[in-house]
């Protein structure tokens, strides 16, 4: 079973057409119940999430109606009669998912973390594929029709996760000599976070990989101007060091090393699920989402987004 929270909120169970949850209130309730399923969500917390600007006079009955919509959404004909995955217990709502269920944002979180670890150890092809998979899973917006403290907190987490994956994908692509994807991911990171110095450094590395030293220097000048005009600060020492390396004409790029171990095996039939850069010898399998779940990574425990 595949559950998508980024973009269109859907469930894609095996053997059943994808199910879309149209109610904005049911969507946000479903999202919180999914991400907090390990410990459940209290009735008051769920109500505050559904109505962040203040509870209606009849909020208790209204919440039961919202929960009923979610319960219908997650209940399928193939389940045993009388068994529901959403139950109320001890003042909390608990959502139980099948063991093979995969949630897109959780798979993206796992892939992004593994990508960063792979890049740090010099496994650039591994890092490139995993980071690209994470970016793909986070293309949609998280509950764009809803606001509130909990929703905004999750959006901040996903924004940072997306930026981290974009930077890792860019740096890994640059290390592999893939200037096209290195620049593409870096440009998107800069566009999404125009004051983020690490994104500018990725763009500098991408231009350097392409042999465009002048463009790399110009990127640093743009960073310095943006920081001075908007924030009144100078670039960080890491950015200044990258600039000095460009001035000296030094090339400190790490070169890809032969990939070894089980992670280097690739299933070519599944790679088409994500947009892949130019073919590389024996890249790893990325985080793959199918109706049967995530085939690569077990679903990690989501961050605790409860609001006291």
Structure description:
The chain has 10 helices and 9 strands. It is of the alpha+beta class and 308 residues long. It has 2 domains: 87 residues; 146 residues, Alpha Horseshoe (Serine Threonine Protein Phosphatase 5, Tetratricopeptide repeat), CATH 1.25.40.10. A 4-stranded mixed sheet has the order 3-2-1-7. A hairpin with a 2-residue loop joins strand 5 and strand 6. Helix 4 runs antiparallel to helix 5 and helix 4 runs parallel beside helix 6. The longest helix has 27 residues. The protein is elongated. About 10% of the residues have low confidence.
DSSP summary: helix tally: 10
Broad shape: elongated
* Biggest sheet, spatial arrangement of strands: 3-2-1-7
Low-pLDDT runs: 254-285
Terminal CA distance: 31 Å
Tell me the number of structural domains: 2
By CATH's scheme, which homologous superfamily of the largest domain applies?
Tetratricopeptide repeat domain
Mean pLDDT: 83
Largest sheet: 4 strands, mixed
Question: CATH topology of the largest domain, anyone?
Answer: Serine Threonine Protein Phosphatase 5, Tetratricopeptide repeat
| Rg from alpha-carbon coordinates | 22 Å
Helix content: 40-55%
SSE run: EEEHEHHEEEHHHHHHHEE
Report the strand count. 9
CATH class of the largest domain: Mainly Alpha
SSE inventory with pairings:
Elements: E1 2-4, E2 10-12, E3 19-20, H1 24-35, E4 41-42, H2 43-50, H3 59-74, E5 86-89, E6 92-95, E7 102-103, H4 104-120, H5 124-137, H6 149-175, H7 179-192, H8 197-209, H9 213-231, H10 237-248, E8 289-290, E9 293-294
Parallel strand pairs: 1-7
Antiparallel strand pairs: 1-2, 2-3, 4-6, 5-6, 8-9
Helix pairs in contact: 1-2, 1-3, 4-5, 4-6, 5-6, 6-7, 6-8, 7-8, 8-9, 9-10
Protein name: Bacterial transcriptional activator domain-containing protein
Organism: Streptomyces scopuliridis
């Amino acid at each position: 079973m595949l559950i998508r929270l980024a973009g269109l909120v859907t469930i894609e169970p095996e053997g059943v057409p994808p199910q879309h949850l149209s109610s904005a209130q049911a969507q946000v309730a479903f999202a919180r119940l999914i991400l907090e399923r390990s410990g459940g969500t209290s009735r008051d917390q769920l109500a505050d999430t559904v109505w962040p600007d203040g509870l209606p006079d009849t909020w208790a009955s209204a919440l039961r109606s919202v929960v009923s919509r979610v319960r219908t959404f997650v209940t399928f004909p193939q389940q045993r009669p009388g068994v529901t995955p959403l139950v109320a217990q001890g003042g909390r709502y608990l959502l139980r998912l099948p063991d093979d269920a995969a949630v897109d944002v959780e798979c993206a979180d796992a892939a992004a973390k593994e990508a960063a670890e792979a890049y740090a150890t010099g496994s650039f092809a591994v890092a490139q594929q995993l980071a690209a998979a994470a970016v793909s899973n986070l293309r949609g917006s998280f509950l764009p029709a809803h606001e509130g403290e909990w929703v905004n907190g999750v959006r901040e987490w996903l924004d940072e996760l997306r930026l981290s994956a974009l930077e890792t994908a860019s740096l890994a692509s640059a290390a592999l000599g893939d200037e096209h994807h290195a620049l593409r991911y870096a440009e998107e990171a800069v566009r999404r976070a125009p004051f983020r110095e690490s994104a500018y450094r990725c763009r500098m590395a991408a231009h350097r990989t392409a042999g465009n030293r002048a463009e790399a220097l110009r990127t640093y000048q743009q960073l310095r101007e943006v920081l001075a005009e908007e924030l009144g600060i100078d670039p960080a020492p890491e950015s200044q060091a990258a600039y000095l390396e460009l001035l000296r004409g030094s090339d400190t790029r790490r070169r890809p090393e032969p990939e070894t171990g089980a992670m280097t095996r690739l299933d070519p039939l599944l790679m088409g699920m994500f947009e892949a850069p130019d073919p590389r010898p024996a890249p790893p399998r990325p985080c793959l989402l199918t109706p049967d779940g995530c085939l690569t990574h077990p679903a990690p425990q989501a961050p605790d987004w409860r609001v006291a």
